[in-house]
Amino acid sequence: MKKKMSFQSFIIAGIRNKPGRNLATAFCFAFIAANIFSGQYLIAGAVGSVNQGVSRMGADFIVAPIEYTVLLRGSGPENTFAIVKTLPTVWRMNNNRMDTIGNVQGVIGISPQLYVATINASELSSLPVDIFGFDPETDFTIQPWLRQPLKNPLSQGEVIVGHQITGDILSKVQVSNRSYTIAGRLDPTQSAADTTIFMGLDDAYSLAQTEGVVPLSAPRISRGDINAVLVRIQPGEDPDPIGARIRRSFPPSQVTVIGRHFTLDPISQDIQGLPGLLKIISLVIVVATFPLIALIAAMVTHERQREIGLIRSMGAKRNVIFSLVIVESLFLAAIGGIAGVAASLIAFLLLNTTGILNSALQVSFRQPAVADTGYMAGIALFVVIAIGGIASLVPAYTSSRMNPYDAIRGEDR
């Protein structure tokens, strides 16, 4: 009894009968998929590091009481540090000035900070420890320095500690007989933030009312008092006019507007331009793969001339030959693409775990999220399969138009 071979069975049989050729073809697809996925994966990690670097540049301005300039030690209005936190000072203002600052054209973010006190606590640090209050919901200078993002928003009774403060995540710290839970820890900032405890403003106001926390020589802290407002401006905007507009919003000699040092602005702009450059490189890689896939498809089709001629001589229609070449190319592309992506992902995970990736790239590589990784894998597979299908169109059409007799003879020459 004759058994009719299905289209799928014929393709699988053809692949199994030429394992060396098809393994080599699948390997080429795997190599291309691995390059596409690797490029996207490295770009995503680099963009994560770049975005973190930009966010860690701190605020563009500090708006503080006019007396704040006394603490700048003659450095003038152009500080040489990234603005992460305000300096410890007893000069304060009311937070109702935030609305005025937030309405200034070009300002896109504002966040208050309150200096509470400096304490000596050998169990926390060998150096004096600053206590600061901040608003976690509007903050854009402290939390970007977190070693690991907070699992939940900072709540009452929780604090973020600097790099040099003793204590593990979820452990307790004692400040003037008050207990707080460490919710996050900062990376080293090479600044006074390394020996600072940051808590929500409500906790800061409550702590300030505790006897002995605020020195008797300092003014009492009332709810609504803040030491400074940290300001972020629209990216690409000239900071000088915006700083001038903020100054004009208040009576003279009432507030000072201190900008980030001008030498940091070109660095920030260069960093922000890197993701676009990396994406262009990735596009070049994808475009460069097309001729290679087309060459592979043409070589495979040429190598199978006699086989195609025999099938045509047995009565196979042209559309069957056309579909056979296309589907087989897509199948090999899918198998190779999956293998290439899987191998690349495993390699990156191993390199990142051992720290080799950070050393090789000379940057702190931020591993993309699982959802982003899955998206990039899907893109790589889609691109490889699409390129495989498009590149095999011409060989498939040529094969379907072959004269069976010429195809069989051509293989024997």
Helix and strand topology:
Elements: H1 7-17, H2 19-55, E1 61-65, E2 93-94, H3 97-102, E3 107-119, E4 129-134, E5 158-161, E6 172-175, E7 178-185, E8 196-200, H4 201-208, E9 225-226, E10 228-233, H5 239-248, E11 255-259, H6 264-303, H7 305-313, H8 318-354, H9 356-361, H10 370-391, H11 393-400, H12 404-412
Parallel strand pairs: 4-8, 5-7
Antiparallel strand pairs: 1-10, 1-11, 2-9, 3-4, 3-10, 5-8, 6-7
Helix pairs in contact: 2-6, 2-8, 2-10, 6-10, 6-11, 7-12, 8-10, 8-11
Commentary on this structure:
By secondary structure, the chain is of the alpha+beta class. The protein has 2 domains: 8-54 and 268-412, no CATH class; 61-259, no CATH class. Helix content is 49%, strand content 15%. It contains 12 helices and 11 strands. The chain has a 9-stranded mixed sheet with strand order 6-7-5-8-4-3-10-1-11. Helix 2 (19-55) packs across helix 8 (318-354), helix 6 packs parallel to helix 11 and helix 8 packs antiparallel against helix 11.
Give keywords.
2 domains; 12 helices; two-stranded antiparallel sheet; elongated; 413 residues; alpha+beta; nine-stranded mixed sheet
